[in-house]
Amino acid sequence: MSGSGGASPPSVLFLLLLAAPGFAQPAGEAACRPVRAAFQVLQPGAKWVPESPVPGLDLQVCVPKGSTCCSRRMEEKYQAVARQNMEQLLQSASMELKFLVIQNAAVFQEAFEIVVRHARNFTNSMFRSHYKSMGPRALKFVGELFTDVSLYILGSDISVNDMINEFFDSLFPLVYSHLINPGFPDPSVEMTECLRAARRDLKAFGNYPKMMMTQVSKSLQATRVFLQALNLGIEVINTTDHLKLSKECGRALLKMWYCSHCQGLLLAKPCAGYCGAVTYGCLAGVGEIDRHWRDYISSLEGLTKGMRGVYDMEHVLLNLFSLVRDAVIYVQKNGGKLSATVSRLCGHAQQRQYRSTNYPEDLFIDKKGLKVTHIEQEETLSSRRRELITKLKSHSDFYSTLPEYICNHSSAVQNDTVCWNGQEVVERYSPHIPRNGAKAQPGNHEGKMKGPEPVISQIIDKLKHINQLLKGMALPHRRATGKTPEEEEEESGDCDDEDDCGRGSGDGELRVRNQLRFLAELSYDLDVDDTSANKQLLNQHNKDGAAVPSTDPSSAAPRLGPTAAITLALLLGCWP
């Protein structure tokens, strides 16, 4: 055994501990009894435990300098237990982070679906309440639009421009026949197809479809990448959580945790320096993830800071009914010109004199009927995203500190005095430094560094890809104003230059802020049954094979009231 000379207090402690039961070297038949009793806990009824010290010539890792209390089968069992211990420590280390990411991914996805559902209900209510003649027929096109929106968020290969063009293509024949030429029979199939084909060339809805494409595309793309990033975070943690340890690592762990037992030193604990060398060697491949993981959190933070205005799907979708309404009003105001042009293009149009000054009152939304009660300091998805980033940043060093966590939770002796160094109990641990400067972790002659395992390399590649996506979103940078994000959001109303906030139908127009709890305060009822829309989503899922969460008709919310607010409050309240 090695020591550091002098009769200092550590030396006295060293001698006393070596004389204590469990620190004594095997001597005689009684020496292996404590080892035998301890091993029976791991392998009850084992018959291959030596009753007295043996030469141990068949041992491969716990090779003794003299005699030993271990057999080859004991050594194999100890190594299996050492691997199991390491796996459990890895899972314990990632438990809090894993729960944080999994829970947030699920809650955000559900919250986004709630936003889509309410946005659809707003639009349906607008049609049913204020365009009664065509309202019921318009619901089908609204449902199809928001079904595509949901599928896009979940990763389906759908073009935002195509879904919006299809919506307005389908809506134009309906608006034309019910608002421009009311009272005439419904257009024939040929006339309907002609109107659909002519809509874009005529710019029947003005610039509103293009505005809608811009806002919906930007907001949904940001939302989609945000969810993809969270789901990849789960995959990264799961991969390292169930890491397959190499053969060399298993042998090093056996030597660190259980070879002392073979010498009868049941109470010996590994030196912290020695433990760090072994675990750094075992997790060298995992350590390669560290800088990409830090970059991942930083990139995700950049995305969340930019998810405002037209990049905030909550703001965009909950105001979408307003754009649709304004687009319909645009058609009405230009009905005379459209009717004449359609008559020339299609030849089947029933011309009728259009009175642009006598609109039926029920064609427009009563602005006094839409009210939002201001509630201070309500939770928003924006604030929840910031909270998530704050918590993730506290785990930015997760991979770099894994070895330290394992040693701190495996009874390593932190001051490196009177501890096990893999060969014997020493008074003070002195790391071995390779003379030839071999590519190894400093002080690590137990676990040799290798390149990352294929599964780790794949995860790193995926992290690089998602980091590029996050950085490539080109979201607007928040100007430095010296104010908190909450104060800026309060003043901006989640509106920027691209929102076209100055447009609309006049003063008093509803602008639903991105606070979902406000939805319960709307003074009009959304009496649309969600069951049909859910069926559309499931049917589309069966066609596209997209991963769409199951829906239950019993969970439909035919009216928007306190229940909707309570449901969302519970969802948003799930954060630890």
Give a short synopsis of this structure.
The protein has helices at residues 9-19, 33-42, 72-130, 135-153, 160-180, 189-202, 208-241, 247-257, 259-262, 272-282, 284-287, 290-306, 313-318, 320-333, 335-346, 381-393, 402-408, 454-471, 485-492, 531-544, 562-572; strands spanning 417-420, 425-428. The protein is built from 21 helices and two strands.
Layout of helices and strands, plus pairs?
Elements (H helix, E strand, L loop, with lengths): L8 H11 L13 H10 L29 H59 L4 H19 L6 H21 L8 H14 L5 H34 L5 H11 L1 H4 L9 H11 L1 H4 L2 H17 L6 H6 L1 H14 L1 H12 L34 H13 L8 H7 L8 E4 L4 E4 L25 H18 L13 H8 L38 H14 L17 H11 L4
Antiparallel strand pairs: 1-2
Tags for this model:
1% strand; 55% helix; disordered N terminus; mainly alpha
Structural overview:
With 576 residues, this protein is an all-alpha fold. Helix content is 55%, strand content 1%. The protein has helices at residues 9-19, 33-42, 72-130, 135-153, 160-180, 189-202, 208-241, 247-257, 259-262, 272-282, 284-287, 290-306, 313-318, 320-333, 335-346, 381-393, 402-408, 454-471, 485-492, 531-544, 562-572; strands spanning 417-420, 425-428. It has a two-stranded antiparallel ribbon with strand order 1-2. A hairpin with a 4-residue loop joins strand 1 and strand 2 (425-428). Helix 5 (160-180) crosses helix 6 (189-202).
